[in-house]
Amino acid sequence: MELKDRIEKIMQNEAMNAVQFASEIGIQGSTLSHILNGRNKPSLEVVMKILKRFDYINSDWLIFGEGPMNRSERQSKTPTLFDLQDLSNTNTINYVKKSEQKDELIQPSIQQNVEQKEIMNESIKAPKTDENKISSAFIEKAIRRIIVYFNDNTFQEFTTSHES
After folding, report:
1. Segment-wise mean pLDDT, segments of 10 residues, the chain, 164 residues
2. Between 20 and 30 A from 71 (CA), which of 20, 56, 104, 161?
């Protein structure tokens, strides 16, 4: 079965004539007519438009004639090359929101760390006990700087106001 035959099968499955199908996928009627008559082979753009519009169609079946016509449940949940544009827009929005939330969370955390360091410094001045030794070890391991690298090759640096 040739690619044009598989396109005809989709049209039959959707109960569409050539004019309706061409309109539905966004191509000229003459382009589809040339494909169906065997004069031209479908371009990658036409195949992509078919797969984008009829997302239940198995791309391997349409392009290679392999496997079932319809995607399995597992395949339909897996993003395809044609879904990436939509996913990137969603991820960008979520990424911005998460970044803003992290900024709000990091600032109080840095302030809390500074306050803990001040408390620890006071406890060091007290006579040495086992508890104070643990506290001084903690001070040596206190966070001084956090650098967050973003996937757009930018970064943001957070430092405590009392570096030792």
Report:
1. 90 91 91 91 92 90 90 58 52 54 61 68 58 58 81 83 58
2. 20
Residue indicated by tokens 């570096």: 163
Structure tokens at 2: 């040739």
Q: Which CATH class is domain 3-78?
A: mainly alpha
> Whole-prediction pTM value?
0.44
Cα 143 from Cα 90, distance rounded (Å): 33
